[in-house]
């Protein structure tokens, strides 16, 4: 059977175990006695070993096996968890990741794990290792009722998988393949073809399969082989008694596996199906496109209903609206992924940066279970890595400098995610040296980014925003203001392209906080439709604080700038027309229609000609060259067929 079709599943699940292994090793760095972390690391290494053995990736299996042995020493209390051991395990983790990447790219495994395995065995005080190569391939499908090999021991193996095992047919086939490597399979129940389709024997504890094996291997070797199969939660081994004796379970010798052994039920009863399935990301993208088309059709029908009266049309539209809303909620739920999907590898990056810089810092992540649309998460890796790099390289001071400043020599970096209304906020905070607004202005003046009169008018908060200017970086800046301008414009561009924005706060000698404000999803959003002159535009509702009607008594003017007064607060009043180079109405009539937005913690009131209403919109990205125009977030279609631009108010003003 072609194993290539199972490669994607192997890569996906192995990467999950590697991420968990990384997280738990990081926990052991903070608390070497963390029993749960030790147990989790052992389970991860054990699972990787079993999956790699089933797929025939012997180099991956052998390295995972060596790491598992060392982790088992920790688990049994035979050895203390010391930094030297963790360093070796982290190096082994890095090698496993590289080898899995080679598998994912269909490359021949070129990495030799023997040096790191020798270091592990040397650390454990052992000199022997399993250096077995790949077992030659054998035909997998046994002939019906094959005879035992002369001089071989013959066993019946009964193995049970958990009821919720994903892709049980794949797991069963991998188990079958692994057992076949140990000898001659005389028969199996169900047959191999049935196993591959997901059919198993019924068992009160899960999905069962039986294999009659003729082998020259010792029974302990069989036990070890089954224990290496992460899919098996329990098993038994009994003497093979021939085809006539199969129905009788008759007092088997039960061998304990990683989980309790299980037995005895009707071998041909129907087996339960798993309650979860894996879905390709292409299918999720197809769902969102289909949902967008449904929303468009719903809008078209509503426009038709406005123009003509048809009995029952209104009631039908109400039902359609409920169905589309339910479908929308379900599709959005499916597309949401925890932030952990992108933060899982950040501890390793921080660890390497700290080591390279010769600094000390603790990195903590809070809120990794906060969920965002997959399309947003895919774009967050680079911005988060860049912000972390700045925190470690230029924010956190060397231990000696921190001690002289009266700080803990070990710095602190915290990444925290939380919900705020319909937005997700991701904060990256450090207790480093912070940024000096005066020095920022000096650098901006020296490099021609601002004029002297601009610097005089700038508040400290305005000065911090200078780091977002493209090219605001130099070697001198790195020394003076901790280098935070390097690429910050790219971070902001990425976040704003996702429909969010970035805020920055810093206090000299106390640290810096960068906050990414992100929508949970970007494809389908509620928008406010507005009119400017003869054109209709859409603005995402989550960008608008509120809409107001402005009367003459609500206005004040100072130095040619008009202000809208709300609860004793002066809010600058601006015509949105000017930002889009559109004509202003000849005769302004009160009340004026305005929407309140917030840009970099500053409120603005933007005047429009008319509010049309709210609508659910499927936003499509702009193609070239329109995607380069600042202030345009995308395009959508109204129910009457009109194409309207979706405005990014943050990019406009």
- Describe the biggest sheet? 6 strands, mixed
Q: Report the portion of residues in β strands.
A: 15-25%
- Which geometry do the CA atoms define? flat
Radius of gyration, in angstroms, nearest whole number: 32 Å
So what's the CATH class of the largest domain?
Alpha Beta
Please report the number of helical segments: 22
CATH superfamily of the largest domain: Histidine kinase-like ATPase, C-terminal domain
- Uncertain segments of ≥5 residues (pLDDT<50)? 127-140, 244-271, 474-486
Strand adjacency order, main sheet? 15-19-20-18-17-16
* Beta strands, count: 23
Using the 3D structure, state the CATH architecture of the largest domain: 2-Layer Sandwich
Indicate the mean pLDDT: 81
CA-CA gap between termini? 61 Å
Query: How many structural domains can be distinguished in the coordinates?
Result: 5
**CATH topology-level name of the largest domain:** Heat Shock Protein 90
Based on secondary structure, the structural category is alpha+beta
Helix content range: 25-40%
């Amino acid at each position: 059977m072609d194993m290539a079709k199972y490669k994607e599943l192997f890569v996906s699940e192995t990467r999950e175990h590697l991420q968990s292994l990384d997280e738990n090793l990081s926990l052991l760095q903070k608390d070497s006695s963390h029993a749960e972390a030790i147990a989790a690391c052992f389970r991860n290494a054990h699972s990787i070993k079993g999956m790699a053995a089933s797929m025939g990736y012997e180099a991956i299996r052998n390295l995972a096996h060596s790491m598992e042995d060392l982790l088992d020493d920790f688990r049994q209390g035979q050895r203390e968890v010391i930094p030297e051991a963790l360093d070796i395990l982290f190096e082994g983790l890095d090698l496993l990741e590289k080898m899995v990447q080679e598998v994912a790219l269909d490359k021949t495994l070129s990495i030799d794990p023997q040096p790191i395995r020798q270091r592990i065995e040397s650390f454990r005080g052992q000199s022997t290792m399993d250096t077995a190569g790949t077992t030659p391939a054998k035909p997998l499908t046994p002939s019906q009722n094959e005879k035992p090999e002369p001089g071989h021991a013959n066993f019946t193996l009964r193995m049970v998988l958990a009821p919720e095992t994903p892709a049980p047919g794949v797991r069963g086939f991998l188990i079958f393949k692994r057992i076949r490597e140990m000898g001659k399979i005389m028969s199996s129940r169900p047959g191999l073809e049935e196993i591959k389709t997901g059919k198993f024997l019924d068992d009160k504890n899960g999905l069962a399969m039986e294999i009659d094996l003729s082998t020259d291997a010792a029974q302990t070797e069989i036990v070890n082989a089954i224990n290496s199969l992460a899919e098996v939660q329990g098993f038994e081994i009994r003497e093979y008694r021939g085809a006539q004796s199969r129905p009788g379970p008759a007092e088997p010798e039960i061998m304990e596996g990683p989980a309790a052994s299980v037995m005895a039920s009707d071998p041909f009863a129907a087996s339960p199906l798993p309650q979860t399935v894996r879905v390709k990301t292409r299918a999720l993208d197809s769902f969102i496109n289909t949902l967008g088309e449904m929303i468009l059709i719903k809008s078209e029908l509503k426009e038709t209903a406005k123009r003509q009266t048809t009995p029952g049309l209104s009631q039908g539209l109400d039902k359609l609206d409920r169905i589309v809303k339910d479908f929308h909620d379900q599709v959005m739920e499916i597309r949401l992924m925890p932030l952990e999907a992108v933060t899982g590898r950040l501890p390793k990056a921080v660890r390497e940066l700290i080591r390279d810089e010769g600094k000390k810092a603790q990195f903590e992540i809070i809120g990794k279970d906060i969920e965002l649309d997959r399309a947003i998460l895919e774009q967050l890796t680079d911005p988060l890595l860049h912000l972390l790099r700045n925190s470690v390289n230029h924010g956190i001071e060397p231990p000696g400098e921190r001690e002289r400043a009266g700080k803990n020599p070990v710095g602190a970096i915290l990444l925290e995610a939380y919900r705020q209304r319909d937005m997700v906020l991701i904060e990256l905070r450090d207790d480093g040296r912070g940024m000096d607004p005066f020095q920022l202005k000096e650098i901006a003046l020296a490099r021609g980014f601002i004029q002297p009169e601009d610097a005089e008018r700038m508040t400290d908060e305005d000065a911090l925003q200078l780091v977002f200017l493209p090219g605001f970086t130099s070697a001198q800046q790195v020394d003076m203001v901790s280098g935070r301008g390097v690429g910050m414009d790219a971070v902001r561009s990425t976040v704003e392209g996702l429909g969010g924005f970035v805020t920055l706060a810093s206090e000299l000698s106390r640290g810096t906080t960068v906050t990414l404000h992100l929508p949970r999803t970007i494809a389908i959003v509620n928008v406010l439709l507005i009119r400017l002159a003869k054109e209709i535009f859409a603005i995402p509702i989550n960008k608008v604080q509120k809409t107001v009607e402005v009367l003459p008594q609500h206005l004040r003017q100072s130095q040619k700038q008009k202000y809208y007064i709300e609860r004793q607060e002066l809010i600058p009043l601006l015509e949105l027309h000017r930002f889009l180079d559109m004509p202003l109405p000849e005769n302004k009539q009160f009340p004026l229609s305005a929407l309140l937005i917030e840009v970099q913690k500053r409120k603005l009131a933007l005047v429009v000609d008319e509010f049309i209403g709210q609508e659910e919109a499927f936003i499509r990205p702009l193609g070239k060259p329109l995607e380069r125009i600042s202030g345009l977030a995308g395009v959508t279609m109204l129910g009457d067929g009109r194409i309207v631009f979706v405005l990014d108010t943050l990019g406009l003003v």
